[in-house]
Specification:
Strand order of the largest sheet: 1-2-3-4
Radius of gyration: 14 Å
Order of helices and strands: EHEHEHHEEE
Helix content: 25-40%
Strand content: 15-25%
Distance between the termini: 30 Å
Low-confidence stretches: 90-98
Mean pLDDT: 78
Largest sheet: 4 strands, parallel
Shape: globular
Structural class: alpha/beta
Number of helices: 4
């Protein structure tokens, strides 16, 4: 069975424009790209996917806006949306959303 690799690009304040960073990264790799960090809205997801990402990771925003996962999966397909069970809310680790 072949090994499947993936690049996960996470937001850092050094990057002024996450979508632009994702676009540059996607142009230079030929394996799946997941981008996360600072994804707060459907518009953010659209921008990241348009930049060339295969998937977006939504964590804290899913806790703050529980409908974001369902809405984004409905619009872009569940294969394009990732969520780690947990996240941060008000500075404390939140319980998993299952």
């Amino acid at each position: 069975m072949p090994t499947i690799f993936s690049i996960i690009l996470l937001y850092t304040p050094i990057w002024k424009d996450l979508a632009n960073t994702a676009k540059k990264t996607a142009k230079n790799i030929s394996i799946p790209l997941t981008v996360g960090g600072g994804i707060r809205s459907i518009e953010d997801i659209q921008n990241i996917l348009n930049a060339g990402a295969d998937k977006v990771g939504i964590n804290t925003s899913a806790i703050l806006n529980p409908d974001l996962i369902a809405e984004s999966a409905s619009r872009f397909g569940s294969q394009a949306i990732g969520h780690r069970a947990g996240g941060f809310c008000h500075g404390a680790h939140a319980p998993p959303l299952l």
